[in-house]
Each structure stands twice: as C-alpha cells, then as structure tokens.
Design a protein that fits this description.
By secondary structure, the protein is an alpha+beta fold. The chain is built from one helix and five strands, in the order E-E-E-E-E-H. Strands 3-2-1-4-5 form a five-stranded antiparallel beta sheet, with helices on one face. Strand 1 and strand 2 form a beta hairpin. The chain is elongated, with a radius of gyration of 13 Å.
C-alpha cells in the first residue's frame, strides 16, 4: 500500500521544491508535475510530487490523517 501526503508548495528552485504541512517542511522533487506553482497543493509519495490537488482534497486527506492519529493515541492509552 502506498500513502501520499498532501503538502503546500512554499518554495520552488528548478526541479525541487519545499512543501509544508502543519509547520513541517520537506524538500520534494517536482519533475512529475512541471506546471506546479507556489501555493499549489501536491500529493507527495517517496519525496516526489505526483499530482497537483485542490485545497479541499488536501484538507480532506489531512483531516482523515488527524482522525487516524487521534484514534491511535487513544488506543495506546
């Protein structure tokens, strides 16, 4: 199973970019999404942006991830 993480693009330098989620920044490759622009949301897998997504799709995925994290925390208590 593969898991993609949505990140907001905050810096672009050639074929690399910096993506941010909840204050955490990651360097990513953007070779597969040549039309990406600052402030776009991208789905990232294994360090590569694999598609540009809209804010609603990013938010939905992040909300699901947050619910999962909270559920795991409750189960570990």
């Amino acid at each position: 199973m593969c898991l993609g993480i949505p990140l907001r693009v905050i810096c672009i330098n050639g074929n690399t970019a910096v993506g941010e989620m909840n204050g955490i920044e990651r360097k990513i490759r953007i070779d597969l999404v040549p039309n990406v622009k600052l402030e776009n949301y991208v789905m990232v897998h294994a360090g590569f942006a694999i598609e540009i997504i809209d804010y609603e799709a990013a938010k939905e995925t992040l909300d699901i991830m947050k619910e999962l994290e909270e559920s795991l925390e409750q189960n570990n208590r």
